């Protein structure tokens, strides 16, 4: 993808502070960190959203994430982090190349997030459950 900033980073056309790299995965520091050590993990191949990814690239990302998260925690002296992965503008995705954020957390860091848990009206949960199951078939 010619205009993709992350593809340019993969190709070395835009510099990045690399953390980890193998044939499938690249990891580097986010240039706009929410906290010290905020790291991105991306597939080297361009995918826009998570559900487009190949099984192989997903497996490689899955193997890399916990390794990198452990290193980020050790290096930043924390034992807490969020993994955040946004798909689509409505979900907050700003770069259209799949990426996973590893965001180290410390007490009172002020980052927070909204988690406005709701309750389903009677029966709606089962309808949604059945609709999702039907889509998986
Ligand atoms: Zn890309």
Describe this structure in words.
The chain is of the alpha+beta class and 137 residues long. It has helices at 5-10, 55-76, 124-136, and strands at 18-21, 25-29, 39-43, 80-84, 100-105. The chain has a single domain, classed as HIT-like (HIT family, subunit A, 2-Layer Sandwich). It has a 5-stranded antiparallel β-sheet, with helices on one face. Strand 1 and strand 2 form a beta hairpin. It starts with a helix and ends with a helix. Zinc ion (ZN) binds next to helix 1.
Condensed summary:
The protein has 137 residues and is of the alpha+beta class.
**Overall strand count:** 5
Structural class: alpha+beta
Going by CATH, the homologous superfamily would be HIT-like
Largest sheet: 5 strands, antiparallel
Strand line-up across the major sheet: 1-2-3-5-4
Uncertain residue segments? none
Helical amount: 25-40%
What is the overall shape? Answer: globular
The amount of beta strand, in percent, is 15-25%
Q: What's the CATH topology label?
A: HIT family, subunit A
User: Structurally, how many domains make up the residues?
Assistant: 1
The secondary-structure element order is: HEEEHEEH
- CATH architecture designation: 2-Layer Sandwich
List the total number of helices: 3
Question: What's the rounded overall pLDDT mean?
Answer: 96
Bound ligands, named by name, code or SMILES: zinc ion
Radius of gyration from the CA trace?
17 Å
Distance between the termini: 32 Å
* Oligomeric composition of the shown chains: single chain
The top level CATH class name: Alpha Beta
Q: Main attributes?
A:
137 residues, HIT family, subunit A, 5-stranded antiparallel β-sheet, binds zinc ion, alpha+beta, 5 strands
